[in-house]
Amino acid sequence: MKPQPPTGKTADPTVYIIDDDRSVRAALEDLLASVSLRAKSFASVQDFLAFDLPGAPACLVLDVRMPGQSGMDFLEHMTEYGLYLPTVMITGHGDIAMGVKAMKDGAIEFLTKPFRDQDLLDAVHRGIEADRTRRLREAANADVARRWASLSSGEKDVARLVATGLLNKQIAADLGVSEITVKVRRGHLMRKMNTRTLADLIRLLDRIQPT
Amino acid sequence: MTNSGKFKLERRLVLTIVLLPVAMVVIFVGDTVTDYAIAAAVFYTPVILVATRLLPAGTVVALAFACVALTLLSFVLTHSGAYEVGIVNTGISIVAIGVTTYLSLKLVAAEAAAHESRERLLRMARITSLGELTASIAHEVNQPLAAIATSAGACRRWLAQEPPAIANAQRAADRIVEDANRASAVIARVRGLASGKAPHRERFDFNALVREVVALAGERGERSGITVRLSLQHDLPAILADRVQVGQVVGNLLLNAVEAIEAKTGGAKTLEIVSETEDRNRIRFSVIDSGAGFRQGELEHLFDAFWTTKKDGVGLGLTISRSIVEANGGRIWAETGRDGGAIARFSLPAGMGAIE
Questions:
Q1: What is the pLDDT of residues B245-281, one digit of tens each?
Q2: Cis peptide before B163 (omega within 30 of 0)
């Protein structure tokens, strides 16, 4: 499975289910279908990893105890697979320590079987929303990065110095070019970055360069 | 029972308070009047040895220091004999007292640790096997239950749609039936597991078994200051049952009784263990404790699974005891004793004739 390419368009959300119990899988799929949510279920973590995830908002419902890689273990190492799925943990024999660990590892909910159907649906909806927000943010960041990449190196230099608050005259002196050149490059870069104000530009630069 | 307990305690006190100092004074006088060459002070070591059996460690250490002080005082007061020999003998005596104190305290601590770990092992064997068993049963049953609850939720939602999605709801209901059958199959399997192991019945001497178990549990009772009275009928007929299983039940009842007595503050601490013939074909075993007894309504729940009055109990001890006794053709029940404590009893069928 490849990390899903960030796309801006909102495709239909999907709920992924990993549980080794066939009845639980069937029941969960049906419950989600009854509220018009698309679901896809897997009997093991391995099966899930073999699947190519489409770039749509998603949420994962993950059983704790399974043969092979356990749900707890998978949750802990999910980011290493390039996965950032909001995860709802479900377990047949939960205790407080397990719940705390799951939440620390980033689960958005920890439910003990048998759980209330509404609790699961609420958690799943929250997860999908969180994933949608994350995807939109990532898509916007990717867009900014693409724009930045389209700048010439001279324009990037000017952009960096502008962002530090220098005047055109100072930038020209710094880079050893004429003030006219600075003004021209500044015009180009503002257009390429699709921004009108200096404040907007600084905000965009912050997204691609965390420094 | 109460009197014998008090008497025991008093005898210990007499021994501690009177005999040890008397012995020390005698040794002191002996050490002082004899000349340097006679190392009478080494006789302080038996005093220390006795003291470690009876007194707490701090007191023993204080006593050891007192012995050392007396040894030094004797050395100062003695004027006959060779002075150098006196120094050497006094040194040897002090070292002997010190080493004896250290080693005997270590020994007592090691014994206590060994006892503790043995008790923990017994308890762990009892608890963990039950805990693991129940956890896996819970997991097995929870899977279909989760599926049932979820399918029921889906079914309700299909029906609530406008128009109701009848076919989908029906499929969900079918799954519910299927999963309910699966859950009951799990239960049937567990029951089969529990009852499948038929007791291995043999004729054996019940009293001997009781004595064995009491020896195991008795140490703990003694530490808690409980007076244990055994009244085992000497011509008890042999019984026909699974010896290991019956031993578990006896141990369980004794442990319950000891815990009940420990939990109660004040009053007598007595545990009475009785074996007798109930009629020609049955023997009866009773454990009578001086604990707080049963509260209103407790008696009827006593043998229910997962029902317990103990803070960290599992609530399966008496449940399992009952299934064992019944599997061996017996009966188990509880009563309130004359002085408010609890009585746990079971009866078992006798094999023919007494054990020779």
A1: 788 888 888 888 888 888 887 788 888 999 999 888 8
A2: yes
Contact (CB<8Å) A90/B152: no
The model's confidence at residue B324, banded by pLDDT at 50, 70 and 90, is confident
Q: Is B182 on the interface with A (CB under 8 A)?
A: yes
Q: Which of B135, B157, B179 sits opposite A23 (nearest CB)?
A: B179
pTM for the predicted model, two decimal places? 0.48
In chain A, which residues touch B (CB < 8 A)?
A: 21, 23-24, 26-28, 30-31, 33-35, 65, 90, 92-93, 113-118, 120
pLDDT winner (highest mean) among B51-60, B85-94, B142-151: B142-151
- Parallel, antiparallel or unpaired: strands B202-204 and B237-241: antiparallel
Q: Which residues contact A126 (CB under 8 A, 6 or more apart)?
A: A86, A108, A109
Beta carbons of A30 and B172 less than 8 angstroms apart: yes
Q: Give mean pLDDT, residues B289-294.
A: 86
What burial class does residue A197 get, using C-beta atoms within 10 Å of its C-beta: 0-12 exposed, 13-18 middle, 19+ buried? exposed
pLDDT band at A26 (very low <50, low <70, confident <90, very high): very high
Q: How far, in Å, are A80, B263, B329 from residue B301 at the CA level?
A: 53, 20, 22
Q: Is B135 on the interface with A (CB under 8 A)?
A: yes
pLDDT band at B242; cut points 50, 70, 90:
confident
Task: Note whether B138 contacts A: Cβ–Cβ < 8 A.
Answer: yes
Say if CB B203 and CB B351 are below 8 A apart. yes
B-chain residues within 8 Å CB-CB of A120?
A: 150
Return the percentage of chain A with pLDDT > 70, whole number.
94
Q: Give the mean model confidence (pLDDT) for residues A111-117.
A: 90
Cα separation of A75 and A86, whole Å?
Answer: 10
Look at residue A6 in the predicted model and tell me its pLDDT. Answer: 47
Q: Which residue of A has its CA nearest to B182?
A: A23
Mutate to test the interface with B, among A24, A88, A89, A121 (most CBs of B within 10 A): A24
Chain B residues touching A115 at Cβ < 8 A: 146, 149-150
Q: Give φ, ψ of B45 to 5 degrees.
A: -60, -40
Those residues with Cβ within 8 angstroms of residue B206's Cβ, 6 or more apart along the chain or in another chain: B236, B238, B239, B246, B275, B283, B285, B348
Q: What is the mean pLDDT of residues B75-97?
A: 85
* pLDDT(B231) > 80: yes
Inter-chain touch A114–B182, beta carbons under 8 Å = no
* Token output for B336: 């309130």
Q: Is B134 on the interface with A (CB under 8 A)?
A: no
Cα of A28 to nearest chain B Cα, Å: 6
Give me A49's structure tokens: 């990893």
User: Does B138 sit within 8 Å of A23, measured CB to CB?
Assistant: no
- What local confidence, expressed as pLDDT, does residue B298 receive? 76
Tell me if the bond preceding B349 is cis, omega within 30° of 0. no
ipTM confidence score: 0.74
Token reading at B340: 């408010």
Sheet with A109-112: list strands edge to edge: A38-42, A14-18, A58-63, A87-91, A109-112
